[in-house]
């Protein structure tokens, strides 16, 4: 009887482990299923077009959340909404698992289009804003949710930001500011971004793009 209970316990443990692995997604399957994503996001999740986000090394929990948002319509984009509609829940889990295991590429130093301010000075401004926020304008520090190195927070589904394209970050913050993007819980990012100037958005985006 004791031996049977031990076997049953082991079987239950293996079943539980299998369930956990399944819930985390099949990386190999995700690689195959991500074939339709490569034209915009690159073979390994590192897009070569700065207005398309890098997906490599992003938390699977965040990627799943966004794909489900595109699928159910709570986040809208003509291309992504159509792509997500064709995905099953398993597809979303597998694709997210695959991109989470890829290494994000580093960026080159942003090119300043005018001579108004040196790039390094802009990055320094962004670094201060990222770490300390702006008490005067009530802009929260990015570090609180996205970590000291832009690594994000997987359990909370806060995205990793490090080495993301500056252009994409600028667009995203601008969309949060205008309300064009507002599917995050309690619209926290809109509340933060709407208090930021365009110069601050650019500065913090430049800084994040240089994080490794």
Describe the structure.
The chain is mainly alpha-helical. It folds into 2 domains: 21-100, Cytochrome Bc1 Complex, Chain D, domain 2, CATH 1.10.760.10; 119-209, Orthogonal Bundle (Cytochrome Bc1 Complex, Chain D, domain 2), CATH 1.10.760. It is built from 11 helices and no strands. It has helices at residues 2-24, 27-33, 38-41, 60-72, 78-85, 89-100, 119-132, 143-146, 166-178, 188-193, 198-209. Helix 2 (27-33) crosses helix 6 (89-100). Mean pLDDT is 88; it is low at 1-22.
Radius of gyration: 20 Å
Tertiary shape: globular
User: Into how many domains do the coordinates divide?
Assistant: 2
Please give the alpha-carbon distance between the first and last residues.
56 Å
User: Which range best describes the helical content: under 10%, 10-25%, 25-40%, 40-55%, 55-70% or over 70%?
Assistant: 40-55%
Strand content: under 5%
For this structure, what is the CATH class of the largest domain?
Mainly Alpha
Tell how many strands the DSSP assignment holds: 0
CATH second-level architecture of the largest domain: Orthogonal Bundle
Give the topology.
Layout: H1 2-24, H2 27-33, H3 38-41, H4 60-72, H5 78-85, H6 89-100, H7 119-132, H8 143-146, H9 166-178, H10 188-193, H11 198-209
Helix pairs in contact: 2-6, 4-5, 4-6, 7-11, 9-11
What are the main properties of this structure?
single chain, 212 residues, mainly alpha, Cytochrome Bc1 Complex, Chain D, domain 2, 11 helices, 55% helix, globular, disordered N terminus
